Structures are given as structure tokens and as C-alpha cells.
Amino acid sequence: MLGLISGYWISQLVFVAARLGIADEIAKRGPTTPATLARRTGADAGYLGRVLRALASVGVFAEGAGGKFRLTPLAQTLRSDRPGSLRSFALMMVDDYNWQAWSRLADGVTRGGTPFESHFGMPIFTWLHQHPEQERTFAASMASISGTENAAVAKGYPFGELARLVDVGGAHGHLLATILGRHRKLRGVLYDQPQVVASAASSGFLATPDLRRRSEVVGGDFFVSVPPGADGYVMKYVLHDWDDDECTRILTHCREAMDPHGRVLVVEHVIPPGNGANWGKLLDLNMLVLTGGQERTKEQFARLFARAGLKLKRVVPTQCPLSVLEAVRT
Known about the structure:
The protein has 20 helices and nine strands. By secondary structure, it is α/β, with parallel strands linked by helices. Helix 4 crosses helix 5 (about 45-55). The longest helix is centred in the middle third of the chain and has 15 residues, at about 130-145. The chain is globular and about 70 Å long.
């Protein structure tokens, strides 16, 4: 219980290491003393040494001869230059605005409403739009976490059966690029808010000549419409941001836009029954705090699709914690 109560101590320590780029520094130089790391990062040597000692006690970094700290497999995930890096995710998830919103969880549980909105007076995506630096970190964090998932999603579902796929709320296009890279005859559309997709070209995900030829980037609002005429509409980590009414609007636009034999593909956690440990059950509370959304069970997804005139046809598991829920017209 002491470990559970003090869990936020660990997340703050990870945040400090991520913010200072400690894993990157050790990767460049090999095992390094806190004094050298402090000089390189502008930190206090004594304080930094205590942070690293505490992180080493939970497997992030390890202290060796001469008081030098080296990377462990967990610490490798905080490197900026590694596939599957979680550094940006750590910087976003433990940033002040998330921290402050989580401090209002008890208010949300007892009084209702979204804790983030109660604290800041506006929805999170409005707040992010007003804070460009945090919005960029948020987008990078989504690409960061997606780097551990998108290959499994692209492999796990037969996207090659489609001719044209719209990635609804696809941010900078990491998922779409991964799917198009695996399925060479498929064409794609990246669709998100104009200021989000404006940065897609610089992200490089769709920058290769082949992917540029087979994709287009469209800015818009999925609460108003989605690009028409495709036989596939995929959305990853989109519905969990919203309540059932808003999800119904998004799904209805997809049903109205897709061709007669099209399909809607929702890539999210599917909460299993029982008491077992499950990342989605914790992420569900993060969505409650930040957006007022939620993670859903298979039965909840089926009811949500039905509200939009769709029918859940199957749930396709992948080699990552996410599943692909396929829905068709009723």
C-alpha cells in the first residue's frame, strides 16, 4: 500500500529525468556520474544524484562503480532517438496541466463534470490550442506512444482489403503512414484539425515519394463532416476522448460519408471483465480527468455503434494492447 500511495513520487522522478534528457546524455557517454550529468543539463549535482539513486531503486538507471549511472532497459525507453521512445509521453503526461487536473479527481467523482474543465474553465483541446508548446508536446507524445502500437495495428487487421482509407483524427499521420507502408495498393487520407495537419508535412511520416503519391492531407472538423467516398474510416484514440453523444456524431458522419460497403474501424482498448491488471482501466480514469471521455467494453462499443446506425461485426485483437473494432452499416 505504501508503494501505491507514493506512486506519484515515481512519476515525478521519471518526468525530471525525461525533461533533463538524462537517458540521452548517458547514451552518448556511457556510465556517467551525477556531477557530469548535472554540468551537462544545468542541474544541481547533489539533488540529481538523489533522483538517480531513487530511480535506480525501481529499475530506471543503475548505479555502478565510481558512482556512475548506466542505462537499463527501462531507461532506454526515455531516450529521444530510439524507436518506441516514451520520453515525449512522459513529458506530456506529468506536465503541470495534467497534474493540476488530476488533483481535481475527487471533485469529479463526487460532483460530476470533467476535472480538467473544472480547474481550467475550458475543454482540454481548447486549452492546448491556446498553448502551442504544450500542443506540440501532446502531438509528439501521441506519436511516441503510437510508435509502440502502430506496426501491430497495421499487421493485425487486413487493411489491404480496402481501396481508400481515411484516418479520422490522425494527427501527424504516423498510423496512416504505417498502414500504407505495409499495404502498397492502398490510398489514404489524413484528416484532422487544420492546425494539426499543417504540421504533418514537417513530421516526415508521409514524406516519402510513394506515400506522398498515395495520400492526401485534409483539414476539418469531424464533428461537422469527414471526407466522403472511402471504403474505410479508421480512428485511433479518438472515441475515448468523448462522451457517447459526441462519439455518436463522429460515427454518424463516418457512416454517412463511406461507400455502401464501407467499414468503420475503431482502434482502442477494449476493457475486459474481471479484476485483472489492465492498462486500459487506468487510462479510462485519465480520460475521465482530462476529456470527460472513457475507455469502453465490447458491449459499450456495440451500443455506441448502434446509436450511429452501425453494427459491430467483429473485434480483431492485435499484438499490442489495442484491438480493432470493425463496424458496418445496419
